[in-house]
Design brief:
The chain has about 675 residues and is of the alpha/beta class. It has four domains: about 120 residues, 3-Layer(aba) Sandwich (Rossmann fold); about 160 residues, Glycogen Phosphorylase B (Rossmann fold, 3-Layer(aba) Sandwich); about 130 residues, ATPase, nucleotide binding domain (Nucleotidyltransferase, domain 5, 2-Layer Sandwich); about 170 residues, 2-Layer Sandwich (Nucleotidyltransferase, domain 5), CATH 3.30.420. It contains 22 helices and 23 strands. The protein has a six-stranded parallel beta sheet with strand order 7-6-5-8-9-10, covered by helices on one side. β8, α10 and β9 form a beta-alpha-beta unit. The two termini are about 60 Å apart. The C terminus is likely disordered. Its main location: cytoplasm. Homodimer. Homotetramer. Homohexamer. The hexameric form exhibits both enzyme activities, whereas the dimeric form only catalyzes the phosphorylation of N-acyl-D-mannosamine. Its EC number is 2.7.1.60, 3.2.1.183. It is found in: Cytoplasm, Cytosol.
């Protein structure tokens, strides 16, 4: 066609690699990039005109941009719905001048920061031919391509291409289209698909169904543009997913059925019926019955027939002496309040969530470990109430963070039980938190807040808090034991947290220290938790109270207050021998557990965390001196100085990620 128009052809380039798959498209672009520099060096063009959104056009624009050649891009700013969008917009960013077809395309280019003075709204050049073509002799063209017995408005033109981002579905859709056309039983001109990835499979579908030999079909690879105009102008319907259907055919008011998503973002006239989910033959067949034979008003969305004179005038106005460097018209951006590094670090923050047996807490935590603001509510008993409260508190905290000049980077959640941190799922919970098994915490929070979410066991979070903010900072190996309502822990080995093959590592509260000890909540007996947890101390305190052996002089328990671990500790401090004995036994059980940890892990530090830690530390050290091997007796055991280890650990999962720490 270029030869027929008598162009002076300087160079011929063969760049299309056969294969019709994704790799062939990439190879074709690469081959063009290899060959084009020599051609452009020889031609030394003042301006390179690049049209459309095909991958070969991208190669041309890339070469010209890198060789400092001015580029004028035609038909930029449009939206379709496939990889063509990405290619089209990429060419826009490389081009110096733009010719667009519609008002919306012009606005898109301006939104993409292109210089308004370098954008021409001209209309589509093909409309210059389309709007003057319909009255020409067309019967001979119809007979040549479809047969002598075919009348105007009594045939179909089908043109369907592969969708490179979903090849499998587009092949299936093409198969359904052909089945529908066979059933519709009208003479049909089927054009072969383009050479994009997936086209070879579509041709196989045509041949499998015998389209090339079917009496109702004419299958062709190419129709000259002038003749193609006449064929679509007088068709009863056009079907497929070509841009021609939604752009050019509107000039004639020919009914169009647009299948799938390939042109989903295009502006269309009322002649176009969209079948976006073309997943059944029946849908396509119904669309054919609705559209075939109709006549719609002619649409001029894409042009008024005067694009070429406008483009010529625009080309002549380009000053070849003006600087080549492209300028972008960025919208104004509000200046930062401060560029001080301390200010930036302080405002980068995490949302931390701590799910305890009694309370639900959410906090905004800065990069330095400062708790900027904390919110506390009672932890509901049911799943629905709990998840709704978590979402509500996180949304409120995220909104408050904006007012506090804190930029939330993500959400970290600390919860009791066994957790799969990779998936963000609570596998099994402790008895303290009901209706909390097989719970996906990541999805609802991430969907609501549009932030990344990390989840881990509360013991592990205590270890993470020590690693980032506490006494484990900089240590290669250490163990944290958290003493609270239950007993938990976390192990850091070679700077990283150990989760174990089934996410059950560091269940330190369930190390057995006595074969005939008290029952534990895990179902076993003699565990550290059965002796040294807050629940265990509460159990012993109630026994003493029921036997009137808890209270000593200076103590009282109001009738409406439940007896708990703190009353036992108070009694021991005031000289209650039995309370002192219970605490000593609890501390000894914890100490034996620590000895087992020292012999197994040989850490450089053991950190006791939680409300009971300070009451156990001396007994634990005594047990280590008496029971541990001499090679580990020098390992230091300390009480954590972190006030909120669960919240800080939850935050550290987020903050470590933002500083590219492995977690």
């Amino acid at each position: 066609m270029i030869e027929q128009d008598d162009f002076d052809i300087n160079t011929r380039l063969h760049t299309i690699v056969r294969g019709e798959d994704e790799a062939a498209m990439v190879e074709s672009v690469g081959l063009a990039l290899v060959k084009l520099p020599d051609v452009l060096n020889r031609l030394k063009p003042d301006i390179m005109i690049v049209h459309g959104d095909r991958f070969d056009a991208l190669a041309l624009a890339t070469s010209a941009a890198l060789m400092n050649i001015r580029i004028l891009h035609i038909e930029g700013g449009e939206v379709s719905g496939t990889i063509d969008d990405s290619i089209r917009h990429a060419i826009t960013k490389l081009a110096h001048y733009h010719v667009c077809c519609t008002r919306s395309a012009e606005q898109h280019l301006i939104s993409m920061c292109e210089d308004h003075d370098r954008i021409l709204l001209a209309g589509c050049p093909s409309y210059d031919k389309l709007l003057s073509a319909k009255n020409k002799d067309y019967m001979s063209i119809i007979r040549m391509w479809l047969g002598d017995d075919v009348k105007p408005k009594d045939y179909i033109v089908a043109l369907q291409h592969p969708v490179t981002t979903d090849i499998k579905h587009s092949i299936k859709m093409f198969e359904l289209t052909l089945d529908a056309l066979i059933s519709f039983n009208k003479r049909t001109l089927v054009l072969f698909p383009n050479i994009d990835a997936g086209s070879k499979e579509m041709v196989r579908v045509m041949r499998k169904k015998g389209i090339e030999h079917h009496p109702n079909f004419r299958a062709v690879k190419h129709v000259p543009f002038d003749q193609f105009i006449q064929l679509v102008a007088h068709a009863g319907c056009m079907i497929g997913n070509s841009s021609c259907g939604v752009r050019e055919v509107g000039a004639f008011g020919t009914p169009v059925i647009n299948l799938g998503t390939r042109q989903i973002g295009r502006e269309t006239g009322e002649n176009v019926l969209h079948v976006r989910d073309a997943d059944t033959q029946d849908k396509i067949l119904q669309a054919l019955h609705l559209q075939f034979g109709k006549q719609y008003p002619c649409s001029k969305i894409y042009g008024d027939g005067n694009a070429v004179p406008r483009i010529l005038k625009f080309l002549k106005s380009i000053d070849l002496q003006e600087p080549l460097q492209k300028k972008f018209c960025f919208p104004p951006v509000k200046d930062n309040i401060s560029q001080d590094i301390d200010h930036i670090l302080e405002t980068l923050s995490a949302l931390a969530v701590d799910l305890g047996g009694t309370n639900l807490r959410v906090a905004i935590v800065s990069m330095k470990g400062e708790i900027v603001k904390k919110y506390t509510q009672f932890n509901p008993k049911t799943y629905e109430e709990r998840i709704n409260l978590i979402l509500q508190m996180c949304v409120e905290a995220a909104a408050e963070a904006v007012k506090l000049n804190c930029r939330i980077l993500g959400v970290g959640i600390s919860t009791g039980g066994r957790v799969n941190p990779r998936e963000g799922i609570v596998l099994h919970s402790t008895k303290l938190i009901q209706e909390w098994n097989s719970v996906d915490l990541r999805s609802p929070l991430s969907d609501t807040l549009h932030l990344p979410v990390w989840v881990d066991n509360d013991g592990n979070c205590a270890a993470l808090a020590e690693r980032k903010f506490g006494q484990g900072k900089g240590l290669e190996n250490f163990v944290t034991l958290i003493t609270g309502t239950g007993i938990g822990g976390g192990i850091v080995h070679q700077h990283e947290l150990i989760h174990g093959s089934s996410f059950c590592a560091a269940e330190l509260g369930h190390i057995v220290v006595s074969l005939d000890g008290p029952d534990c909540s895990c179902g076993s007996h003699g565990c550290i938790e059965a002796y040294a947890s807050g629940m265990a101390l509460q159990r012993e305190a109630k026994k003493l109270h029921d036997e009137d052996q808890l209270l000593v002089e200076g103590m009282s328990v109001p009738k409406d207050e439940a007896v708990g671990a703190l009353h036992l500790i108070q009694a021991a401090k005031l000289g209650n021998a039995k309370a002192q004995s219970i605490l000593r036994t609890a501390g000894t059980a914890l100490g034996l557990g620590v000895v087992n940890i020292l012999h197994t892990m040989n850490p450089s530090l053991v950190i006791l965390s939680g409300i009971l830690a300070s009451h156990y530390i001396h007994t634990v050290k005594d047990v280590i001196r008496q029971q541990a091997l001499s090679s580990v007796q020098d390992v230091d055991v300390v009480v954590s100085d972190l006030v909120e280890p669960a919240l800080l650990g939850a935050a550290s999962m987020v903050l470590d990620y933002t500083t590219r720490r492995i977690y």
